[in-house]
Amino acid sequence: MASINTTEVISNSKFNRFHFGLLAWCFIIILFDGYDLVVYGTVVPVLTEEWNLTSVEAGAMGSYGLFGMMFGAIFFGTLADRIGRKNVIAISLILFSLFTLLCGFASTPTIFSTFRFLAGLGLGGIMPNVIALLTDYAPKTMRSMVVSIVLCGYSFGGMLAPILGILLMPSLGWESIFWFAGIPLLFLPIMMKHLPETSTHLIRINRKEELIRVLSKVSPDSNFTIHDEIVEVKKSDEKLPIVGLFKNSRALSTLMFWVAFFMCLLMVYGLNTWLPKLMIEAGYALNSSLGFLIVLQGGAIVGTLIIAKLCDRYGSKKMLVPLYALGAISLTLLGMGGSSFMIYTLVAIAGACTIGAQNLVQAYVSQYYPPNIRSTALGMASGIGRIGGMLGPILGGFLLSISLPIQLNFIAFAIPGLIAAIALSFVPVKMAYYKNNQPEQSEEIMVDSNKMNIL
């Protein structure tokens, strides 16, 4: 009878079929998450005319979904550390897919906004738990890369929304691109069958047989049996998991991550909602303006993959601080105009430094905190960030309503990037869990063939 340390097994595993399957499912989920988030920015020019909305009203409608995301991220992020990430992922997927689908049947701004809020609850809960699940099972040497690849699904979904807008809206109307969002409901049963639950949760609820089965897939070269003992590190449970974010000298890091998330999501959702409209104001046609939204997401994909590799090699903080600063510079230059090539290049850089940076900072947070509070850390940071996300569309609508020069509109979205860079520079790397993974206040759990006993 052997002893199995699940943390060591997972950390030392090699990327294999199990990891690829997990990555693929999570990529699909995040793709639709990105689609559902960006779809409103695709239709807002049409809705503004059809429903006679002012810029401020349209911006407020865009913020209802983000308002729901704030509550969803905090509630479902904390809940997942108690009932399991897999269950919360399923609940969140049902919420955002169903109510985004129903947006295509809304006949008034009030009904539309209500559906966006309810969809936002699921959208807020899905990403923190997908990232946490990936980090739980990714090999130690490529955690940033695995998480970043999956988060590129957000940008692919963001590109898909304007592409379908160009193809479908002229003939089928704006409603048609919301109907597409219901597809995840069809593959939910298959997803639930293939997605694993985290090892820590399986230990907590005494499902050793399932844990052994999952570990055998994680490390197929190892020989695990039901008679083996499970040696796992268990941190003392907090009645309020959020307290753990401020313990062991993590208070400064937590606050600075919250500032960075707030500022970056203000930029991300402000641009996703208003970039087409801003480019129309600058003299471009609707289809060309939607093209800029596609380039924004394309830049995010390329930037995420390139920088993620560097993050695994040199450290996330060293890459993210200059990335945020570069985003501020690119947005400032974007407002000054130039040749078509220059504009497209700046939009792509802006995508890498806003959406791409947000992808990477989530991967960073998922590794910075211990596994037992990982979903809580991501959920709280995302929830605080959604407040900035709510302000983004409102800020853009307000700026357009007062008819400022186009340059000042872009500068307004550039300033948060500079603030995010400053905030992240204060995060102490030495306090990261991946740097000091000797758990505090730990107990050793030995699991025999029949039950789990805390020794």
From TrEMBL:
Annotated compartments: Cell membrane
Highest taxon above the source species: Bacteria
Family matches, as SUPFAM superfamilies: MFS general substrate transporter (SSF103473)
UniProt-listed InterPro entries: MFS, MFS_dom, MFS_trans_sf
Domain Major facilitator superfamily (MFS) profile positions: 22-432
Stored PROSITE patterns: MFS
Topology of the protein relative to the lipid bilayer: Multi-pass membrane protein
GO cellular component, one term: plasma membrane
Gene3D superfamilies, per the entry: MFS general substrate transporter like domains
Ranges that cross the membrane: 20-41, 61-80, 87-108, 114-134, 146-170, 176-195, 255-272, 284-307, 319-337, 343-365, 377-400, 406-427
The keyword Nucleus belongs to this UniProt entry's keyword annotation: no
Name by which UniProt lists this protein: MFS transporter
Top-level taxonomy: Bacteria, Bacillati, Bacillota, Bacilli, Bacillales
